[in-house]
């Protein structure tokens, strides 16, 4: 600067701007985590794993050999790293699956959709029962035992645990449960009102811990439909909070729906700590009296003091947040999981060893594509089978999931613990000899038991590592798939009335034939990936299949599609081999026969007379009566396969990455002791197993 | 009085009519969509593989329609809508029922307003200043380099710039947070610590908007100035030996800025529709996400709330610009 003239010349000005910028950036700089300086290495050692046996509190200690990726120690670990205002060593950060909260200050779950994966279902609430699809059974949460039905399935008795407390130190009793059922029954438009109002005749607390529900019609599955938490259920209301809205059996609906229930009372081990009014995060703190919750009684103390559920934005931001160790478990797509693993040695997907990165063998939903069974030629089983055999399962899986997902072509979760013996193994044996008539009396076999092995071999060729023994492949990649048989597919298309011109283009009823594969999902999500992979396969085969993305979530329900990426049937509960929930949406009573009108059943609109009969029988059969249910279930599965109304591909994938930088002991493909997902109600139990890493 | 009778009153009538028409359109259009918020709510439940008995589902649909007031005739809904509008009440959100729409807007708008208004001002000043200089001093080496940089930046997709900033300043040189409006758990208040925290979190989103916005404005302004430079009165000023700085500031920039002021005013409507991509990439709270969510879920009331404010902002800022133009351009006479 020229001191004499006091005139700021251009160079001085630029110099000052530069210095000012550096100063500002330095002032803004925050060191969130200690920097890792040493090089990671892969080591092999004996480790102890704690395994939960069949979802019960009983645990065993095993020793097994695993390859773990060593995490280098930080060069200078501070005493207590503060991340986002929390002591990082005491806090678990997770992604909110459903993103930003639309109603950030509202916790009135019974009055509508409240994005309960903001922590409400993971740690705030204890339902009566929780479905543990990893172990294949129900966990008794607030319920002391399994439900008890009368012989005519019209009376349901529920016993509650004693000594369980709301977070305001009021005991949770049968009065709360009876009040909840009566309140929901009397409140049209409340969550679960329709189911409860249609089915419940009366409800009564017969003693402090026993509640008896009288049903209007026999239903041995009433508790599944309303009280077993898979990803939401009818939660118990604290009567002393909500009774002000109900006078003489009448609910003041206006006040009830306007009630934000903030702060909410917890029946689970954590209570609300703070929230972002803009909906980006919700923080929960462990209750001092966590021992008076089902989690505390059944599993022990959850280890983190805090749980913070955050919307971290798009995949790039999520990957960066994880490499900065700001988040412990986060939803990602497959490329992002691999990117984060490359950048951060403490991060991994579902498998400790890397490939295949995602859990795809036990999720209760099965994804694939559904045909519109009311449209020609999709209403023809020959046509549907032709499209099935026109897909190469290896390249389908590579397009859809980068070859990382289990093959699940059967309309059932093939590695569901309770499904294997009663259904999967007999079905696979049946399929070995199962043939299709492709026309002219020619029969072809359609089952390919080698497909999973070929999928693994293809992955190994690409540089991934995976054991090649049959059992491990079967557990992680399934039992087989439908054959890729273009010749048979061509014959079946001809049989269905399609013709191929000299230009190799297909026609139907004298007109060029094209169809659309629709998805209402977003890239990376399983429904989108299935639709995309199917379209790619059919294009490759020579059919004019077009891919269409819609934001209208009702297109499928209105029947405005040819083929749609979706769950190919209802979710299994997986805690027993009961297939009622899996197939009930195919019952003719669920069918809307006019396309363009709203369908409440499965979007494929497929029905079958014999399936109706079976479903009607199952409906009044005890879900534990396997002697009756197993043959009926098998018959239903075989009908579904013969008709092929939807092509099942894999279980629904929810890919995520988890970091062992601050917390260790996460479940994995190698040690799958509980449901691993951070957005499921089982998360409160998972939090009792993890351990701080000491950083 | 002539001004009032011949210009102001017709202009105000036009203003009111445009608003009524626009607002009526946004009342009708969402209702023409084949599926409403109730159906979409029920579909959301079924997406997770839990199918409901059709009788129960229909009962739910009926009860929700009653609850939301969607069972009433369209004309009744329209009258109720206008009655509410005069008190700036858009009713409850249908998807986040019963949260009032104004509460939702109130939660989101300050973030969007703070971010977008600040960046708009920065863009206006920087873009016009550098664009003006580049258009006038065409031989200046620094301005030519800057012009080249802006030429590269202007056509770049916004999200590339945003991602680049995140990768550089949140990952390679981690001096800024990856996203969010403020530090999780930080006590909200009018304190320096909180303000600093908000500013730090807003830096990357703001920078991304400023870079793209400035580059575009710079290009436009450079072209305008080059055009003005060729005008006779500018040539005459040069011939008349008017000081270079006076020609630049009084003759060229003042005239060239006029269309940019109008453009600036038009940008106000954007404050109410938000910057969705910015919000998604930076996980930044704002009204863009609210609008996007409302469109996806057919939340009529939220859609109407956001678009009504946007329409009013646009028409009002245009009206004000029309009335204030003589202040900027003395050639204009409202007679």
Number of helices of chain A: 21
Distance between the termini of chain A: 49 Å
> Uncertain spans of chain B, ≥5 residues at pLDDT below 50?
none
Average pLDDT rating of chain A: 88
Residues in helix, % of chain B: over 70%
A few lines on this structure:
The complex is a heterodimer of chains A (695) and B (335). In chain A, 28% of the residues lie in helices and 21% in strands.
Q: Can you put this structure into words, describing what you see?
A:
The complex is a heterodimer of chains A (695) and B (335). Chain A is α+β, with helices and mostly antiparallel strands. In chain A, 28% of the residues lie in helices and 21% in strands. In chain A, the strands form twelve sheets. A five-stranded mixed sheet of chain A has the order 29-28-30-20-31, with helices on one face. In chain A, strands 5-17-16-15 form a four-stranded mixed sheet, with no helix packed on it. Chain A has a four-stranded antiparallel sheet with strand order 8-9-11-10. In chain A, a hairpin with a 2-residue loop joins β21 (435-439) and β22 (442-445). The two termini of chain A are 49 Å apart. Mean pLDDT of chain A is 88; it is low at 1-8 and 17-74. Chain B is 76% helix and 0% strand. Chain B contains 14 helices and no strands. The longest helix of chain B has 38 residues, at 192-229. The mean pLDDT of chain B is 85. Chains A and B meet through α4, α7 and α9 of A and α2, α3, α5, α7 and α13 of B.
